[in-house]
Specification:
The protein is mainly α. The protein has 6 helices and 2 strands, in the order αααββααα.
């Protein structure tokens, strides 16, 4: 069985695009999340079919990905993710790197100056994704992400 690894993927949709997806989902008796998953599944199948028709160029055999050791300038992560439960109970108003986005229906903690949801960020860190990948995906500066994680107690 081939080795697999998770790759973080994020898509930004306008409010109009979200409403359109929700209306299509409702018309088919699906939730928004089910519709998005179905759309990505169909997209993946289409890409797979296209790849089967067009032979790929000879690429080198992929190497199994080894865990990234923490570089000297990057803090080490804790052995357990117990900090994630504690982070949910923190007073985030005391962290200068986060802010609340106020919507009609809810409030959302994000990294200051971005639309990166704090709860998703912390969950992805807990899953063990490399901090560089997370920062790139959410369009964050690595020091900003590190500051948030230090506040959360995720890194030493």
């Amino acid at each position: 069985m081939p080795n697999s690894h998770k790759k973080l993927f994020q898509v930004h949709l306008s409010e109009e695009q979200r409403r359109f997806i929700r209306s299509l989902a409702a018309a088919q008796g699906m939730t928004h999340q089910q519709a998005v998953v179905a759309a990505f599944t169909a997209w993946a199948e289409k890409l797979g079919a296209a790849a089967a028709v067009t032979p790929p160029a000879q690429a080198p055999e992929p190497r199994p990905r080894e865990p990234n050791p923490a570089p000297e300038n990057q803090p080490a992560r804790p052995a357990t993710a117990n900090w994630l439960q504690k982070a949910a109970k923190l007073d985030w108003t005391k962290c200068p790197e986060v802010e609340i986005l106020q919507g009609k229906a809810r409030r959302l903690w994000v990294v200051r100056g971005t639309l990166a949801p704090l709860n998703e960020l912390l969950q992805i860190v807990a899953e063990g994704h490399p901090l560089e990948d997370i920062a790139e995906t959410f369009q964050l500066e690595l020091p900003q992400l590190t500051h948030v994680l230090r506040f959360a107690g995720a890194v030493a």
